[in-house]
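Q: Give me the 3D complex with serine.
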Amino acid sequence: MKNEKILIIGACGQIGVELTLALRKVYGSDQVIATDIRNEHPLLKGSGPYYSLNALDAVATYELVKKESITQIYLLAALLSATGEKDPKRTWDINMESMLGVLDIGVQEKLNKIYWPSSIAVFGPTTPRDHTPQQTIVEPRTVYGISKYAGELWCQYYHQRWGLDVRSMRYPGLISWKSEPGGGTTDYAVEIYIEALKKSKYTCFLSESTYLPMMYMDDAIRGTIELMEASADKIKTRMAYNISAMSFSPREITSAIQYHIPEFKIEYNPDFRQQIADGWPRSIDDRAARADWGWQHEFDLNRMTYDMLKQLKKKLQLA
Ligand code: SER
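A: Here is the predicted complex, encoded as structure tokens.
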């Protein structure tokens, strides 16, 4: 573990910022090279090495891997579900080309491990929506979901064919305060906290009873590092693991916020994202992740709400 040198592609995104900071704590600042096509995120500044990198530029990625003697890659660059529907072909190109480029580098350079995230978006309206099993009907209807499912199959293929140690999990909606979410259907569950604090009201783009699986970022980051550090014999699927923490509807998160901000009001004005949400699971069966490598969540809706409001108050200087 000590000699790992990690490359993070997409380090300035919602997951990337926190994962980079967490990995730097575990492996050491200089052992984790952060890259993104965007300018360096303010929270990353001064915390370790940073390069500008386009995830689609396989040559530049390869050169950086050689130059920095990289042993592991975390590929986090992607367009998400809602943004993806606006330009399906571009989403497919970005999500798949970056991934296949990294998998090839992994084989060629005999990298120790690769991490590539999947999503509950792999599931679709024909999937059982409650306690969705690890293995079930998978017919995604968004281009993001299609790219994630194809990606899972590629992970499995590269593992079987070339022994590449590539690991993945299907994140539910991720809720965070440090870095901004980017174009997902579950992003309402971040916006709602910010608007509750700023304006005591929020107009939700999903209907009040739309249940979706969600997770606090602290759990997602810890789980990701635990999956990557688990011994290889514990990883029984080379597709992606279901992982789960909580499920709630806009009405339920509203009640949890009203406990702290009683004057908070919500209105509902569902848009195109409603249809995406209606095709996704309401809850996830993650027993395989729990049994195989010991996944456990720590945050439920109330604990997360308490922490989100406390942290955002400080961040937005409303305290
Ligand atoms: N949070 C993502 C989205 O809504 C799901 O992976 O697109």
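A quick observation: The pocket of serine is lined by residues 80-81, 119-121, 144, 171, 173, 184-186 (CB under 6 Å).
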